[in-house]
């Protein structure tokens, strides 16, 4: 059996479980351990070391993907759950749209699996900085504990919309964007007098 057939068989099993049986009350999925599936830093999904080329399969697997409190990623069906390796995050934000301006602005992102997510209280922005280079890595929250990292072009678009807000209590200027009435910080700098 070739790798593509194994991937298709696994997808069919997951699909059958998703569409079919519901777990019994009080019953939890059986933990199956690790499976040879991973997601690279660029958002490419792999099975047994080879890329999964069909976006339909990636979308199917992503529909049952969850992240636990320790940062582990799991494919969870009503009957089984299996851990997969994720290099950074499961998704990449590849497009951004905004409507309105200032505090009335609404921003949304499209992921590499064509999922749209609003930048809001339920889907916040966070930015990590590399301790050696100080290069930013921006992420937007998704459902089920998952996140999407903004690709460089999308991050630059977001930065173009940025505003500065003075924070005199901390002698800082906060740099960020408004979306759905909330300010999301991209960065900060020390205020100069």
From TrEMBL:
Query: Where would one find coiled-coil regions in this protein?
Result: none
Q: Which Pfam families match?
A: DUF1285_C, DUF1285_N
InterPro entries according to UniProt: DUF1285, DUF1285_beta_roll_sf, DUF1285_C, DUF1285_N
The domain of life is Bacteria
DUF1285 domain sequence ranges: 28-89, 90-186
Q: What is this protein called?
A: DUF1285 domain-containing protein
């Amino acid at each position: 059996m070739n790798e593509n057939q194994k991937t298709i068989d696994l997808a069919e099993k997951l699909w059958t479980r998703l569409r079919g049986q519901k777990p019994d009350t009080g019953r939890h999925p059986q933990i199956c351990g690790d499976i040879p599936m991973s997601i690279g830093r660029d958002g490419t999904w792999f099975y047994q070391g080879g890329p999964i080329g069909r976006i339909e399969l990636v979308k199917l697997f992503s529909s049952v993907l969850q992240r636990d409190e320790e940062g582990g990623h799991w494919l969870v069906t009503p009957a089984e759950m299996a851990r997969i390796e994720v290099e950074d995050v499961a998704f990449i934000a590849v497009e951004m749209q905004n409507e309105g301006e200032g505090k009335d602005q609404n921003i949304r992102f499209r992921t590499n699996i064509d999922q749209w997510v609003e930048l809001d209280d339920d889907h916040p922005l966070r930015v990590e900085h590399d301790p050696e280079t100080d290069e930013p890595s921006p992420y937007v929250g998704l459902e089920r504990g998952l996140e999407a990292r903004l690709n460089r072009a999308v991050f630059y678009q977001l930065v173009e919309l940025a505003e500065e807000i003075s924070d005199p209590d901390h002698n800082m200027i906060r740099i960020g964007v408004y979306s759905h009435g909330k300010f999301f910080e991209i960065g900060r700098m020390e205020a100069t007098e």
